[in-house]
Amino acid sequence: MYKWSNKVANLLEKIELRKSDKVTLIGKNSIETIILYFGILNYGAILNPIFFEESDENLFRIVNLTKPSLVFYDSDRSLGKTGKETAIWMSFPDFFKNCDSDNQFIKIINNQSDKFEDCRGNSEDIAEILYTSGTTTVPKGILISREALFLMADEISERIGLADNDRVLEYRAYSWASAQLLTILSSMLKGSTLFLGKKFSISRFSNWLKDYDITISAGVPAVLNMMINGSVSLNKRDVPSLKFITSSSAPLPEETHRRFEEMYGIKINQMMGMSEAGWMAGNPPSNQRFGSVGLPLKYKKIHFIKNNGTKCCNCENGEMVVAGKSIGMGYLGEDGGLVEFPKEGFATGDLGYADDDGYIFITGRAKDLIIRGGINISPLEISSRIMEHPAVNEAIIIGVPDNIYGEEVVGFVTQKDGFKISEKELIDHCKACLPDFKIPKKIYFLSSLPRNQNGKVIKSELIKVIDT
Asked: How many CB atoms lie within 10 A of CB 135?
């Protein structure tokens, strides 16, 4: 990996990139993507990772916001409109095991030296721009410094007790901040062995754990719920080396946590993070507390505030605020500059409290996001797409409880007078430009949306529609 990342760094040097130049990486979970990932960081340019399965609309929106000088994209990824005039676009194949191929990219990589010692970036420079859905249709770019990225990986690897003899399983998209910090960067930092799954399925998951003698596995509540609701041939006896499976990205109810451990005899270690701040809290593996996301990590300071802005006392509910050396710098502004996070801390939108021992408990969300299978989904992005249909008058999207994914996407629509549209037609309309995980599971047609005196939609009334 070291020599290959040096080859990539030398290629970037040949292109004469500066440390302020941005490089977008569009790839699937593969060794080639990871080589390019580390090569870009090694060189010192700014990395902008995007997952292979992102929709064309969102992909090019992100590229247009980032304004990269160079785009690496997996040759298996078909592209519609490209906007290629704004950057150099380089398609990369599966080059790691095909060194003798006549492919032009492989020839270019093979011709680079495997020695590189001239990193352009320093600790204060930007390492990555990560995008999150947020609560609007426009994704927000989060700028993370090279120092903060290192500290983020250092603190989470310390909390889970990662060591050089660990065998770590990851199957989530490489571009997630959660996956980068928990497994990809941490494994490199600690010398652990990383097993990166290309495509997740329950049968593959249990086989991976067994066949590769995994000691720590990434996890999300959706996977744990699948295992509880389905029959999976797995027990602690089958995976004696497995210390625990992590749980993050969405709330894990205490009853689900206990039921999983009773069924499978495998420990769950619950933690919490967000793209803007990396991992924020995590249970120490030897001192877990059911229902809690754990203690703040070593470079983090966490407190809760009331509606009036004053700090909460222990066990008093409020909005979570995180600060410290290991959080993002701020958001990418419309002018390409930095919109800094407040010095006093970043309000996460999560509601909860810290107990007398400092353990964090999350009780709800102030932000209007849907978290489906650990993935943040902007309701406004989906409703805006539905409203593009000529028959739709109004549309609203909400998340409803789901046994497998934690939350599922559901839509409510009113139609324009004189128009008639079916649920299937609207769902097909969404499928034209949205990825599968954002497609509404169900769409309800209403004569009008229930609103309060301020004109805001009353979501509790929409839930009643589903219940009836």
From this structure: 15
Instruction: List 436's β-bridge partners, or say none.
Output: none
Torsion on CA atoms 33, 112, 4, 144, rounded to nearest 10? -60
- The pLDDT tens digits of the residues spanning 412-464 come to 999 988 889 999 999 999 999 899 999 999 999 999 888 875 567 888 889 88
Pick the CATH number of 2-121 from 3.40.50.980, 3.20.20.100, 3.40.980.10, 2.60.120.260: 3.40.50.980
- Provide the β-strand partners of residue 51: 27
Helix H or strand E segment including 274: strand 268-274
Q: Please state the CATH superfamily assignment of the domain spanning residues 370-467 in this structure.
A: ANL, C-terminal domain (3.30.300.30)
> Which tens digit of pLDDT belongs to each residue from 29-69?
999 999 999 999 999 999 999 999 888 888 888 999 999 99
Could you please report the per-residue DSSP string of 169-181?
EE-S-TTSHHHII
Tell me the pTM.
0.84
* Residue 234, helix vs strand vs coil: coil
Structure tokens at 434: 């949205």
Domain boundaries, given as residue ranges, for the chain: 2-121, 152-365, 370-467
pLDDT confidence of 132, banded at 50, 70, 90?
confident
Domains 2-121 and 152-365 share a fold: yes
- Count of beta carbons in the 10 Å neighbourhood of residue 190: 19
The superfamily in CATH containing domain 152-365 is ANL, N-terminal domain (3.40.50.12780)
Q: Pull the structure tokens for residue 277.
A: 């701040």
Smallest CA-to-CA distance from 177 within 38, 375, 373 is with 375
Asked if residue 182 lies in contact with residue 189, where contact means CB atoms within 8 angstroms, the answer is: no
The Cα-based distances of 156 to 105, 171, 215, 337, 341 in angstroms read 36, 18, 16, 29, 22
User: Given CA atoms 33, 39, 41, 43 in this order, what sign does their dihedral have?
Assistant: negative
Q: What three-state secondary structure class fits 260?
A: helix
Angstrom distance (rounded) from CA 113 to CA 3: 8
- How would you list the strands of the sheet with 330-332, edge to edge? 88-92, 70-74, 22-27, 46-51, 126-132, 140-145, 330-332, 338-340
